[in-house]
Amino acid sequence: MRASTLFGMPVVDRHGRPLGTVSDLLLDDPAPATICYLLVNTAPAEGAACRTVAVPWRLVSPGEQGDAIKLGVSGEALRQMRDIPPPAGRPPRK
Asked: In this structure, which of 6, 26, 31, 65 has its CB flanked by the most CB atoms within 10 Å?
């Protein structure tokens, strides 16, 4: 799977409930670069703004149909993860 196909893909919890969409990947440094985190734009809860959070790559797996990314965390656990600001001079991905 190409990384570019992940951007904008739906993200669901282990029970298939929607959590948000993929916005980016974080790689470690120095080389060889490996994926460390999946950045997820969370679905806004009532009265809350959309956030971008970093989910450890070890908690990420493809959905059964290949049309979503499944996380090994609950929506509540995702809400507890820290926000990741967009890179300077670049708006967040939608």
From this structure: 6
Rounded-to-integer distance, Cα 17 and Cα 1, Å: 23
Total number of domains in the chain: 1
* DSSP designation for 35: E
Range of the domain at 54: 3-80
Q: Three-state DSSP class for 31?
A: coil
CATH of residue 16: 2.30.30.240
Encode pLDDT of 5-64 as tens digits: 888 999 999 888 999 999 999 888 777 778 899 999 987 666 667 789 999 999 999 877
Alpha-carbon span 83 to 78, nearest angstrom: 10
